[in-house]
């Protein structure tokens, strides 16, 4: 059954299990982390995040893991938080859709949309919004972590998927649908979000052209605690 959210609901993403402290050893491929538990045991944990996490994840840093008891899971531990020393940072992007749902009610431009549902799996979009007049809008939720001073910057790497993102946003705009790019930061130790022209200039130029065509970009910051994660601030994003 398709999971449908309604924007009058207020959802806070709370951790449903105890979090276990561990020491990060190394990253094996993008989605696998080797960690050492407080007991001294070495285990592999699922790291649901494809970004580089520069300046956040490094050998010896303190991480917090949730534990999934399902017998169908190959990896029971999941990396949820990283302690940077200055703050806790959430790194599990699987929470993004639930976090975005909470934010929707606070965005005046999104108040016309009464129903939110996950977008079709074969698209780059994370959510589809539908108004009472059956007007459609699409949302891409992208993690933003790279920090420069007190600013977060996007993008932080060259990704093959960026080309597909540009194509599908362009097609949706041609189809007269609204498109929103939500840059979601599971942290609150920053003051602004801005574009990074150095990493992938071609992607940024195409993104700027799409903004002139109707794409809207904004950034959300989160309060991150051992109990859960909640969007608390919205930041402008100038490109």
Description:
The protein is an alpha+beta fold and 239 residues long. It is built from three helices and 17 strands. The protein has helices spanning 96-104, 161-174, 201-213, and strands spanning 5-6, 13-14, 20-27, 32-37, 42-46, 62-67, 77-83, 88-90, 113-118, 127-131, 136-143, 147-148, 151-154, 178-185, 192-195, 216-224, 228-238. The termini are far apart.
Task: Write a brief caption for the model.
With 239 residues, this protein is α+β, with helices and mostly antiparallel strands. It is built from three helices and 17 strands.
Could you give the distance between the termini? 39 Å
Proportion in β-strands: 35-45%
pLDDT below 50 for ≥5 consecutive residues: which ranges?
1-11
Overall pLDDT: 89
* Counted beta strands: 17
Largest sheet: 11 strands, mixed
Characterize the overall form: globular
Number of helices: 3
- Oligomeric state of shown chains: single chain
Helix-strand string: EEEEEEEEHEEEEEHEEHEE
Rg (C-alpha, Å): 18 Å
Residue share in helices? 10-25%
Q: What class would the helix/strand composition place it in?
A: alpha+beta
Question: Which descriptors would you attach to this protein?
Answer:
alpha+beta
Helix/strand layout:
Layout: E1 5-6, E2 13-14, E3 20-27, E4 32-37, E5 42-46, E6 62-67, E7 77-83, E8 88-90, H1 96-104, E9 113-118, E10 127-131, E11 136-143, E12 147-148, E13 151-154, H2 161-174, E14 178-185, E15 192-195, H3 201-213, E16 216-224, E17 228-238
Parallel strand pairs: 11-14, 13-15, 14-16, 15-17
Antiparallel strand pairs: 1-9, 2-17, 3-4, 3-6, 4-5, 6-7, 7-8, 9-10, 10-11, 12-13, 16-17
Helix pairs in contact: 2-3
